[in-house]
Amino acid sequence: MHGIIVVGVDGSDTARRAARAALRLAAAVEAPLHVVSAYGSDRAEIAGSGSDQFLISDADLAAKTAQSIAADLAHDQDGVRIVAAAVRGRPAEALIRYAADSSASLIVVGNRRMQGIGRVLGSVANSVAHNAPCDVLIAKTDE
What we know:
Protein name: Universal stress protein UspA
Domain UspA: 2-140
CATH architecture: 3-Layer(aba) Sandwich
CATH superfamily: HUPs
Family: Belongs to the universal stress protein A family.
Strand order of the largest sheet: 5-2-1-6-7
Order of helices and strands: EHEEEHEHEHHE
């Protein structure tokens, strides 16, 4: 494998398991790993009180999620270049667009919501698998 591995994360335990699977693969093939979190809008809120107020946006929260997981992964593995990114859009669409824009070789997603009613209604993994511009690995992330 010669290109970037992209893993989609949302802060959930299953996404963290998918990220660890992506890290193991990136280490094995000496590929860079991009940890990507999607956000749906440019909505922002002011939090805090008095003069201690902060502007919190969906983009900031997604970036912090990706950065947090990337930092956790960096502690587990030396030698893999890890990049964190936040991308606007629905999760599947954002991952697909990011993979295309970065010329990724592989997208890794977890298998969450691929059983039961989620399978009928659709899942991120299903959408990515059917529309990705590159190979897709669906990591087993359920217990």
